[in-house]
Amino acid sequence: MNDADKKRLLKEMIFFRRFEDRTFEAYMERKIGGFLHLYSGQEAVATGVLEKAMLGKGTDNDYVITGYRDHVHALKAGAPAREVMAELYGKETGSSRGRGGSMHIFDPSVNFMGGYALVGQPFPLAAGLAMGCKHKGSKQIAICFLGDGANNQGTFHETMNMAKVWNLPVLFVCENNGYAIGTHIDRSTAVKDQYKRVCAYDMEASQHDGMDIETVMEAAEKAIDFVRSGKGPYFIEFMTYRFRGHSMSDAKGYRTREEELEWEKRDPIKIFSKRLIEQGLITEDDIKAMEKDIDDEIENDIIKFSEESPEPKVEDLHKYVLDDDPDPRWIGPLQQ
Amino acid sequence: MAEIAYWEAIRRAHDEEMANDRMVIAMGEDIGVAGGTYKATLGLYDKYGEERVIDTPISENSYTGIGIGASMVGMRPIIEIMSINFALLALDTLVNAAAKIRYMSGGRAQCPIVMRTPGGTAHQLAAQHSARLARMFMSTSGLRVVTPRGPIDAYGMLKSAVRCNDPVIIIEHEQMYNLKEEVPDEEFFRPLEGAEIVREGSDITLVGYNFSVHLCLEAAKRLEADGINAEVLDLRSLKPLDRETIRKSVEKTHRVLIAEEDEAPVGVGAEIMALINEDCFFALDAQPVRIHAADVPVPYNARLEKAAIPSAEDVYQGALKVMGKI
Ligand SMILES: Cc1ncc(C[n+]2csc(CCOP(=O)(O)OP(=O)(O)O)c2C)c(N)n1
Ligand SMILES: [Mg+2]
Hints:
The structure holds two protein chains of two kinds.
Chain A: H1 3-28, H2 43-51, E1 63-66, H3 71-77, H4 81-88, E2 112-115, H5 122-136, E3 142-147, H6 154-165, E4 170-176, E5 179-180, E6 183-184, H7 185-188, H8 194-197, E7 204-209, H9 213-231, E8 234-239, H10 257-264, H11 268-278, H12 284-308, H13 328-331
Helix pairs in contact in A: 1-2, 1-11, 1-12, 2-3, 2-9, 4-12
Chain B: E1 2-5, H1 6-20, E2 24-28, H2 44-48, E3 53-55, H3 60-72, E4 76-80, H4 84-87, H5 91-98, H6 101-104, E5 114-118, H7 134-138, E6 144-146, H8 151-163, E7 168-172, E8 180-183, E9 196-199, E10 204-208, H9 212-225, E11 230-234, E12 237-239, H10 243-253, E13 256-263, H11 268-280, E14 289-293, H12 302-308, H13 312-322
Parallel strand pairs in B: 2-3, 2-4, 4-5, 5-7, 6-7, 10-11, 10-13, 13-14
Antiparallel strand pairs in B: 1-8, 6-12, 9-11
Helix pairs in contact in B: 1-8, 3-5, 9-13, 10-11
Bound molecules: thiamine diphosphate and magnesium ion.
The site of magnesium ion has 6 residues of chain A, from strand 5.
């Protein structure tokens, strides 16, 4: 990785952290409603994995799909930050035109195929995206990000089996943050190391530190190469931690302050900035300046855009339920 | 023109659509090498190969989900679920994903899947193989639900369903796969929307869908012998419902009976009655009647099964009641 890329990635991760922090504030101001799940602490995973994916080519990108904790995956995949924030604000200019909200960010123009609230639901959808890529003979792959808890759904087993049997170009990324809401993995899951679970399906798998972006990138590159070369699906597990509650309504009574502090020492942004400072690529002041630029952009551009954008019109309530412009040959009316 | 069976009509639609567009694939349990439980894909595995006629493991929720994902990137999967009872396992992907992806994305993504499944009682298949469940799907915004009553619709609606951009649930019936009808040899499409008057009449409207249309037709024949001229209306599409055609018919006959093979609560008949109340209440000359299954799991015992499921005789008796003859 060259120095410019390192600095860019650090800036991206800081941006993602600040973006999430700002959504927290907007939620407190009641500008954002519904459930809001923040990604703070796990930035190195989405940033690092997707850095190695095929992006920046619009609809020729790799496909990305995830759960409800989806803002950062969407942003890194290329969804404009203004549109993601406007979606959280429920505005017509939002990524899903205000119909989806925080848990359902979509941007098919960059092949970000959505955030889904039903735990485990994206597993088969991802395999389907991969089936489409394979069928078209394209080099694209599908990348599915889900949590450790999702692996206890039936779809996990059903999909791992089919992905392997059909040799689908799909990368499953398990973001193991140790918890499914308030239930620690030790209390819910017989096998702690998630990557071991797919051996039942004879699938390639590995486990890595998810707090160090360079480790993530190195592991992701291998896994993505494997999948893209047609060798079949791959399951990659990253050990990580979410710094905030599961969602906004979480008093975090299920974990200790000591545990949190232990993980905060391994904050992916701290680890990476410290390394870049040690390598002489950047100074504390540079980082402060970076943060200021980011905050300015978020406040003066992204938030301003979201605040000023119009709400969807109530007359448009029925838009987007079915194809709004269907072909009468298939739909009707029926000639009596 | 040739007389072909319902299953042959479905097979022909698969074949033509797969030949027309290589993005069309078929998925389901035993549909490939075995040719399909109902022969709906017979011979297609040999013709199109295992990548397009896909034998799936017994994982309804996830293979349906895989079809949905594939449809989001341009494929046109026709998913067969062996029985609508097993479609309950796929409700998450169908109801929470397929039905809502267009909406949740603000119209930016779509999933044009077709799911075909038989829903209905056959002969003593008992409680876990006799569900009807149309009412469950028709209560879900974002889905289309259609119920072809014979080979012409089975063929023409499947072809339209493949080409339409919405998720379409096609509910077939175990007792209809061998039903025959003259079907034109040249290609045609049948629209997914619109109820159809399959028998014109002036005294009473008998509303049916799927298999119950045939019960209505049989009852209409018997009513004719009694001097009652019944109109038979096939809903064809349960979602969306064609309330215009229902209203017009009721305004003509002033009397109505709804025949459904399913249980009554929160069902098709309940919905049609509500629409009639809203649209043409004052056109009614008599209380509408619903003919429906007993509110019990479908029994195994043949005599009990018969008692639980409506017959043409029940429709006939119900019509006499609406006519004030009993
Ligand atoms: C099918 C389903 N069951 C339950 C829930 C409620 N729920 C939301 S998130 C969650 C925990 C998921 O944990 P994990 O997969 O580890 O992801 P994380 O939140 O840690 O990122 C649960 C139980 C849901 N959304 N969907
Ligand atoms: Mg978790």
